[in-house]
Amino acid sequence: MTFPYDTHDLINRCNEDAPSVAAWSDDGLHFTIKDKTTFEKDFLTTKYTTFTRRLHNYGFRKINSELEASGKTLLKDEEHFKHISFKRGQRDLCDNVKRKAKPTLKTLAERFRRLTSKNRLLMDEHNRQADEIKRLSEEIEHLK
């Protein structure tokens, strides 16, 4: 489970040596990738998309829209990532950053059952609304 530790060290290094590329937020609760091209070329051993996929696999969230909603102005192409157990100066918290488990067949079957049930409810509602629209259209025609 070195990815969280490696990422923490990487963000620390960027924060010190290349803050225009990647850095911790002022409060240290999330980090920002400011220059994806340079970050990939000079700091990553993989493609940037692979790095972000791994972040998501470990439970990191991209929080750009949350920051914008709070009134923060973001630079073009900036990406902000957050994990509850990933904070500046608290490398030991990386123990809590775990890779998401792959769903079991039982979990997938349950998810499929729930989605099928929801789909059935939505189809019933759609049909009910279509019948209501037809009835109202006929009523309007009758009133003309």
From TrEMBL:
Q: Where, per UniProt, does this protein localize? A: Nucleus
Asked whether the keyword Translocase is assigned, the reply is no
Its domain of life? Eukaryota
Primary site of residence = nucleus
Give the keywords, sorted: DNA-binding, Nucleus
One annotated GO molecular function is: sequence-specific DNA binding
**Which Gene Ontology terms of cellular component type are present?**
nucleus
| Residue stretches making up the HSF-type DNA-binding domain | 2-100
Question: What family does the Swiss-Prot or TrEMBL record give for this protein?
Answer: Belongs to the HSF family.
- Protein known as: HSF-type DNA-binding domain-containing protein
Q: Which Pfam families match?
A: HSF_DNA-bind
Q: Tell me which SMART domains the record gives.
A: HSF
